[in-house]
């Protein structure tokens, strides 16, 4: 297809004072997103998850190839299978495979090999990256900046879930290859990227104090 453009019609310009207020409000809102590890089993409508996955799919990607696939899991049986496999891996990780430095870094978070939330939370979303594809379903082209693109989409997903009013956790069992089989994505083209756990937080969910230490602007940004 030759290059074709349409006018930009959906950009919204806000008055400057409204822009600052919006940015400040957004900051306050996103600062309320915390990784939580205790979820309620309260159901969450599939429709809500669908909207959030569509928001993730709006992320920019290399050549707009959208090199991602999301597997949204609410099946109790599949969640249980994922928990069993993840816990087996995590047991090895916490028993020493991680090494002393990594385990020390995790101490203030209080994480361990128990992953009950993988069964309790109403939804797990497994994010897969794709080496080849393209914008059309039948395309088999090289994908570009795959890691960057899928990272952006996953960020959009977390933001969408939080915005919708759900709790979230990024989970990265190591290695993650078991997810390919369980999710029916066991092929040469796709790799598991991250597992997102989402649902309502349990009434007694907690946030580690360590996770609340966010760096200041001076620490994370320089201006030239
Ligand atoms: N995947 C393990 C360990 C873990 C690793 C990091 I880096 C974290 O920030 C948190 C946990 C687990 O889920 O327990």
UniProtKB/TrEMBL annotation:
Keywords: Flavoprotein, FMN, Oxidoreductase. InterPro entries: Nitroreductase (IPR029479), Nitroreductase-like (IPR000415), Nitroreductase/BluB (IPR050627). Coiled coil: none annotated. Residues 30-200 form the Nitroreductase domain. This is Nitroreductase family protein. PANTHER family: IODOTYROSINE DEIODINASE 1, NADPH NITROREDUCTASE. It comes from the Bacteria.
């Amino acid at each position: 297809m030759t290059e074709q453009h349409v006018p930009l019609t959906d950009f919204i310009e806000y008055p400057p004072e409204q822009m600052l207020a919006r940015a400040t409000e957004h900051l306050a809102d996103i600062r309320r997103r915390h990784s939580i590890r205790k979820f309620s089993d309260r159901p969450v409508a599939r429709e809500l998850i669908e909207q959030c996955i569509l928001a993730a799919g709006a992320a920019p990607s290399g050549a707009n190839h959208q090199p991602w696939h999301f597997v949204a899991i609410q099946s109790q049986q599949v969640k249980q299978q994922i928990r069993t496999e993840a816990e087996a891996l995590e047991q090895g990780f916490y028993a020493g495979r991680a090494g002393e430095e990594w385990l020390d870094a995790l101490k203030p978070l209080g994480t361990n090999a128990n992953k009950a939330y993988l069964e309790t939370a109403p939804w797990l979303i497994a994010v897969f990256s794709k080496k080849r594809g393209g914008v059309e379903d039948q395309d088999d082209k090289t994908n570009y900046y795959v890691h960057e693109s899928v990272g952006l989409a996953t960020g959009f997903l977390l933001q969408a879930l939080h915005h919708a009013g759900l709790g979230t956790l990024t989970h990265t069992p190591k290695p993650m290859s078991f997810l390919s089989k369980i999710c029916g994505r066991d092929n040469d083209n796709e790799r598991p990227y991250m597992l997102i756990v989402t649902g309502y937080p349990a009434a007694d969910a907690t946030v580690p104090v360590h996770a609340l230490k966010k760096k200041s602007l001076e620490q994370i940004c320089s201006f030239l």
